Records
---
Amino acid sequence: MPFKSLGLLDQLVQGVHSQGYSAPTEIQSRAIPVALSGRDIIGRAQTGTGKTAAFILPILQRLSSKPLSGHGPRPVRALIVTPTRELALQNEEFAIKYGKYLHLKSLAVFGGVSMYHQIAGLRNGVDIVIATPGRLLDHMQRRTISLSQVEILVLDEADRMLDMGFIDDVRRIISAVPRERQTMLFSATMSPEVRSLAMRYMKNPATVESGEERNPIETISQKVYRVARDRKTDLLIELLKNPEMKSVLVFSRTRHGADRITRRLERAGMRALAIHSDLNQSQRLRALEGFKRGHCQALVATEIAARGIDVEGIDCVINYDVPEQPGNYIHRIGRTGRAEHEGDAITFVAFEEEPLIKQIERFIGKKLERLEHPDFPPEFQTQKPLQQFEQRPGAGFRTGSSGRRFSKRGHPRRVA
Ligand code: AMP
């Protein structure tokens, strides 16, 4: 189905074609016609499905089709609230690219940078603001932004915003926007908290879905390595030696951990950069740019810093630590396999993390393939009784050459 048949203006169809997209993704073909009609939407779509265009294209169309009344600077008519600055920047980039044949202005507003340019931009008039909650509230308090003319409100990655503790901020923002509006909420998962937010603030929303809920994007192959905690970095270095691992996003639970892993990789002669919230905004953007341009092989990130990272062609996401929240697992691995490209996700599991990976498996409703590397075996292979981990009587880890041979990505044999 071509973009044109969704009811989009020629200028927008040209805008998406100029990005090299010939056909809409599933969420785009479902959401765009509904959003163009002005109806509220709950979009359940994971990151990587093309959800951003699913709300940005209708916003651009609806605003450009409605002439502005009055003179003076343009009022903010669409507000997109996102959990992180990276996601805000990414949305701004898409709004500018897709809307390049229209005459609308978009501005990302986020914390960690001076307010000066944001205030100047807002004063000059902006049609679409993409904001993180904290900085937006700052502008509201200083009265450097007015939301009184907002016609369209988008809550992007709503589940993440709630996970990150932004619920009160989000409520305050919604209350500052006129009641008479179109509201679109996008979320990878529909927790009771997200549902109640939608029920409270939306009018007769249409639900639009893409893919199975909780099921990570189908093109991603997911693997689990059982490995001793103190051998994780050695295993990581070994995997990164594989020439197919050109662009790898590594997740660490802590900032300190991210720095430590990065230093170890550098000492092993690898190009690695860390991205976490101890770095200032320009350092973070520089790390991200370096990774995007292929200047480094591995970007070692903490959970929050990695939100909204949109890098084409990530070969692999490696969870150095098992995520404690199963929802975060989906968000993390969604960084690879974007827009229907193949991607790999590997999770390192130490003995004490076994319950966490089981919890993730229950959450996604799928058993993950277990691997182990002969040079970096799991500690419980020697220290703990196997039956704690293996259900089948007599089952054990294969250590001989009878298992699968090394694959072309350098993954050794399957063990469970
Ligand atoms: P999102 O889920 O919005 O973060 O988008 C994920 C990726 O898909 C981005 O890198 C987009 O550039 C890309 N994308 C968006 N729409 C399409 C499309 N119709 N065809 C191919 N790629 C797309």
Note: Residues 383-416 have pLDDT under 50 and may be disordered.
---
Amino acid sequence: MAGAREETPVSDADRCDNFIDGRFVPPAGGSYLPVWEPATGRVYAEVAASGRADVDAACQAAERAFPSWRELPTERRAAVLNALADRLEAQLERFAAAESKDTGKPITLARAVDIPRAVSNLRFFAAAAQHFATECHPTSADVLNYTLRQPLGVVAGISPWNLPLYLFTWKVAPALAAGNCVVGKPSELTPRTATLFAGLCGEAGLPPGVLNVVHGSGPDAGEPICAHPSVRAVSFTGGTKTGARIAGVAGPLFKKLSLELGGKNPVLVFDDCDFEAAVATTLRSSFSNQGEICLCGSRVFVQDALYDRFRDELVARAARLVVGDPADPATDQGALISTEHHAKVRGYLDLARREGGTILCGGQPVSLPGRCAGGWFLSPAVVEGLAPDCRTSQEEIFGPVVSLYRFRTEEEAVRLANGTAYGLASVVWTGSLDRAHRAVRDLQAGITWVNCWMLRDLRTPFGGVKQSGVGREGGWEALRFFTEAKNVCLKLSS
Ligand code: NDP
């Protein structure tokens, strides 16, 4: 049951200090914030509460490290990233356990997805940087235009709590591979794996100052990073409101910005789909990581003829999901990230009832015995009967809650799917290639999966439209973001 927070003392080993200039250092102000274990509702560590002075120190270290890091041949930088990947992979179990403890996600998920994906991010961008090429425009017999893509200098990576190391490395790897130095700020709620990762840097051969980690709250540590004159670009993943705030700070300073923001992703289930694949995958796309993935489908539109069967099957399977201790391999659903978030999600379920919705299953705080008695658990909820334009249907909940809607025609489904301020991901289930193509063309989203979900290829552009973000990550897009194009026009003397 989500209960009152209980303070417990922490040891030095559970302290997440900043990593600046190749060393772990306490915050300049000497203060720390508590870190809670979602599965127990108890404080288990503390994290540096950094401010401007720490950000300054990190930016200065990064500035100092930049000239030598930039001068290294790409192959050498790639070798360091690969060495980091090897070390991370060798400690997969340790990192997975830390990620699960910090976030409340099932250990099985951290083991199978979060940490392996962080390893892949490092290896992928180590390879990509070595294949990155630029354009050449031969203008005439004696004039050649070519493009240089130069690293920017000091760049910032600000990441959220839901996929901590996965998203931290998704920013850090391309930035470093392209020759930049990084000041990274993980979420204060989940600082653990970024700290452990920083601890691998020295032995992997990353020179001091090339990667710096500054912990702390968004306003106190994150915002000074975005405003810092040394920082040339900010790659941010998080909520839409925070993204707007960061754009307001960094925009007038003409910094490059990549904003990966919230979503209210639609899933369109047509009556000609593969039923078993659609229902099994929709269960995953609704509730993986407790629904705390920006790509989770939260609005499921089902065609009339299939609606009742699909609803009954989804509800039956959701009710069978095991909510339990994240450390137990039998657990499907772990704990929500914080008591505030637990209350927020429950608040949306109350709102859903007031807005005319029926909670078909779940949505209840779950009391677990033993060490998890104080954890922030919630059973997965399926809701129906909501109007598409009510708040529950429009606002991002970011928890184990999915709502079902009935539609008749393809045109109606696409119109309803597009009817929010967001446009991150969408999913289409159909046996018709023509219908899939039409839907893909008309859906307002940065990503559309057809007859699948979360199949990721790191070469593809990743990002959202509308209030889900600006810019693209992944593949060449990331390497372009972390470099500045310079045109060189060369006239031959002869
Ligand atoms: P937040 O926007 O609250 O925080 C994201 C990061 O920004 C955290 O490190 C946070 O620090 C920091 N931050 C907060 N305020 C500021 C500020 N004023 N200046 C600079 N940095 C700041 O998001 P959450 O961590 O709650 O993550 C959940 C959100 O992330 C959801 O909306 C989800 O959709 C979105 N998301 C989007 C993804 C995408 O690819 N589009 C992927 C994953 C998540 P701190 O937490 O320490 O305060």
Note: The pocket of NDP is lined by residues 158-162, 185, 187-189, 217-219, 222-223, 226, 237-239, 242, 245-246, 260-263, 294, 396, 398, 424, 464, 469 (CB under 6 Å).
